[in-house]
Amino acid sequence: MNDSLVVGMRLDHMERMTDSTGMIQHAVGAVPDFATGYTTDDNARALIVALGLQSLPDCTSWWARLGKLADRYLAFLVYAQRSDGRFRNFVGYDRRFLEDVGSEDSLGRALWALGEVVSSHPDSYYGRVAAAVFERAAPHAADLSFVRAQAFALLGLCAAWEGETVGVGLEPLIEGLVGRLTAAYRLHAGPGWRWFDEALTYSNGVVPAALLRGAIATGSEEARRIAVDALDFLTESLIVNGQLEIVGNAGWYPKGGRRALYDQQPVDAGAMVLAYTTFWRLLGRPQDREAARISFAWFTGRNIEGIPLYDPDTGGCRDGLLRGGVNVNQGAESVIAYLLSCYWLLKTGLARASLPEEEVRAAG
């Protein structure tokens, strides 16, 4: 690939999936499935998309539309937060909570989103509201026990730490999560298996990306080395003949076992784009620059089935790569994964955006 990588983007599907409450979880084809309600998981990641894209020169024509979406997603996080600072995750279409407390992942993803907003919008009402929610939630990062939840939270804590705009003491929380991730690696890694637990499952790229940022924040050389080793292990395992072959969720990839090739999901390809763009931005390794583009190409048809997941007609992304085809539904997580991948590539200068011509003309 060369420097002319172009990413096509539309906001249509993200807007289609968002109502006055937030982003609907699933879709039937490209139509929102109201019965599935909403999740903190999706609305948190959608908030990163909305305010991230709004900050890019490529997306100037979308500024007002993205701001309207960001209002919805941030309001959802405010609504989902419990009085003790944790979050509920699942919300019915009637806005009633479907559980008393959400998963560790939903807490981690909420912290990730809020930390990004606190860092990027410190002087706006987005930043002020996000900071208040973040400060109530951040102490719970110390209680997270699952590797990916810890990684999601670490991304948000590092973003907020870099912005220096919140009142809670972030250094001990960051050091604690970095310590837990490095301990998990020491426990599970061995010959032929440089990883943090006994299987490669979902959102794998998030873990080395978060640990690298945590290593820089803490100055830990051990954490930095482990982050590099882990990403290199993912590269060796998942990039085959210049093509991303992510772990399928129909069996995952257990240590010492065989890797499942299907069903491959957009969120996992997006996590690899995040990992490689993070390493490219922070370490400047040429192989990560190329791997980021290879990972993104999974969305546009450079995958084991040769089928595009991104749908340029709707602006959505199909929910999974199956043997011989795709899952035609275009849910929230999938379009978010695609647009986040676009954002990370654009932010790091590895791509330029192609927006619908009618929108560019209207903005001009």
What Rg, in angstroms, do the CA atoms define? 19 Å
Tally of alpha and pi helices? 13
**Main sheet characteristics:** 2 strands, parallel
The strand line-up of the biggest sheet is 1-14
Count of individual domains? 1
Strand content: 5-15%
Please count the beta strands (DSSP E, at least 2 residues each).
14
Shape: globular
Secondary-structure-derived class: mainly alpha
- The ordered H/E elements are EHEEEHHEHHHHEHHEEEHHEEEEHEH
Mean pLDDT: 96
Q: Would you give an account of this structure?
A:
By secondary structure, this protein is mainly α. The protein has a single domain, classed as Glycosyltransferase, CATH 1.50.10. The protein contains 13 helices and 14 strands. It has a two-stranded parallel sheet with strand order 1-14. It has a two-stranded antiparallel ribbon with strand order 2-3. A hairpin with a 4-residue loop joins strand 10 and strand 11. Helix 2 runs parallel beside helix 12 and helix 10 runs parallel beside helix 12. It is globular, with a radius of gyration of 19 Å. The protein starts with 5 loop residues before the first strand and ends with a helix.
